[in-house]
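Hi support team,

I submitted a single chain yesterday and got back a structure, but I'm not sure I'm reading the token output correctly. Could someone confirm the output below corresponds to the sequence I sent? I've pasted both exactly as they appear in my results page.

Thanks,
R.
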Amino acid sequence: QVQLVESGGGLVQAGGSLGLSCAASVSIFSFNTMGWYRQAPGKQRELVASITTGGRTNYADSVKGRFTISGDNAKNTVYLRMNGLKPEDTAVYYCNAKRHYDNYDLWGQGTQVTVSS
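Hi R., thanks for writing in. Yes, this is the structure output for that exact sequence:
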């Protein structure tokens, strides 16, 4: 069974940094796009950042210049480096993998990120 396992969440003070990892049980080349989403209490899940197999990245306006998504094909892992964290970044962060030809959409279990003011 294909799985995505996130790690690296935690508690950090405003202005601090955290790194998230998403390890896939298969090659990340199996997917067209991998991304990070987040969901804060009472809010809808939103895209934070995504990366295609070609290396094209996309970021939410709210995180541009602060967050960086990257992938390591050899480790089947996608990363999210978060700098300059703000309390409004507090959310559960989910890893996602999409494959277009069959609308395959896979989610990780989520990891909590809490930013204190």
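A quick pointer for reading it: The chain has a mean pLDDT of 96. Let us know if anything else looks off.

Best,
Support desk
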